[in-house]
């Protein structure tokens, strides 16, 4: 994997870091779980679909680092390492892996059905990381953690993934044609 980034690539990744931070503020707390409904998942999928594996992952790494040092970019204008170490940290940290995998799916550009199924698989990874982390941080039994951290979010997250896929492939195609991003 190429580790050097051009100024254009760094700026592009930073734009998607900002988009993730902005969409994280669209947050709806649920009374029965400390995990809110946010648009972060949509931002992660969109950035990786558009930017590919390398820049999509970079945008999410920057997002996590900026949040970890205390800038209030996480949901509900929170920031700091304690958020990453808290009940929702597993979801946030999973963004690195899922951004990379989503970017690879985007770069491959295979059949739409296969791509959507693969993207749903990355959603399972996000849920697994978030739920397991939640379980260990809160000591809530794993079955209850699944009910608190997965089931309430599935319908909306599926919609977010599908919309991010549709928008992402169109925007990625336009940016590739305009030579504003490179295919990896």
TrEMBL record:
It holds the Pfam family BioY. Keywords: Cell membrane, Membrane, Transmembrane, Transmembrane helix, Transport. It is found in: Cell membrane. It comes from the Bacteria. It is a multi-pass membrane protein. The keyword Transmembrane applies. The chain crosses the membrane at residues 61-83, 89-106, 113-133, 145-167. Belongs to the BioY family. This is Biotin transporter. It comes from Clostridium lapidicellarium. The lineage of its organism: Bacteria, Bacillati, Bacillota, Clostridia, Eubacteriales.
